[in-house]
Amino acid sequence: MSTKETSLPKGSIETKTNRLLVICVDRDDDIGSKAGVITPVVGRNACIEAAQRLALEDPEDADSNSIFAAVKTFEDLASKGYQAEVAIVSGTESKGVQGDEKIVLQVRTIVETFSANGAVIVSDGEDDESVIPIIQNVLPIVSVKRVVMKASRSVEYSYAVFGRYLKAIAFDSKYSKFFLGVPGILLVIGGIATVLGLTKEIFAVMVSVLGGAFLIRAFDIDRAWSHWTKPTPAGFIRIFTLVAGILFVLASITAGVSTISPQISSVKPDEILKIFISKQTIGMFVSGMLPFLWMGIGCMLGGSLLSSWFRGSIRSITDILRIIVLVTLYPIIAQFTTVITKDESPFTLIPPLLIGLAVILISASLLFHKYRRKKGGEVLSE
Asked: Is the pTM of this model over 0.70?
């Protein structure tokens, strides 16, 4: 057992704190619920007897050590010439307002019989020390001593932190949706499958649900969707452009497949795999889907730009730059597909790369200069 003591600056002991009351606080009333001791307990011998009874009932309880530490503190003060007394006060098992009121009443009762002008608080943790401001309304606090059992402090704090996490998971909707909602859905699906005898089929469904939940949470899809679907003009624009962009992306896949379908239709089944992995087929597929794919992505970025512009957000500069980058990448990728399908020299990629880089640098410089001047030198961030 070790103790930590925090004392107030020394003053005139004879005139200010010559009568000290050493108070051992048991806020959750372990001494009453386990040992049957009725508080307040006042006096050295009575406190030692109470600590022994609690230690016999529960040797692992740290409150008995706190009582012994309070008695030792009382003896040290008495040996130094203080008029001192030691006492035990306790709250209730449920803590809360009623327990704290009980502690205040017990302290007042003790002060009526022993007119102390200062108090020394002895406790075994932060929970008991939370009543210090309440006791201070009755009696000035001179010193606070915390009794720390070896290897028990980390356990106590870990338990407190773990309890807060459990409470957040159970009652905070931000966390309960995932940590309770997803397992709840899986359990319901598993129960229904067991009743219907579809355990094999439902396993795939449960894995898909769990995987989808992980992906949604990992990429913040739920928050992004709630942000995009706000019932505002900007929100409606984002929804429209998002749906339109997704349709264009899906259409790009169809366009790519239709580009290579003449080659596939005339090929024997055992040679289809070779056709699919050939660079000419890949180049034709990318070339066919590229226009619709770029229109879809551009539609989504345009919706984000309009939304930022309606809100007057400075984030519109990043949306403009994204669209510029998208436009400059199109000729580069188009030329790359030409290199693949027609075996042209890779050096033909250098001109569009240099032109695109120059366009991006010039556009970024102009936009940042314009917005910094408009915002008075404000630093732009995402």
From this structure: no
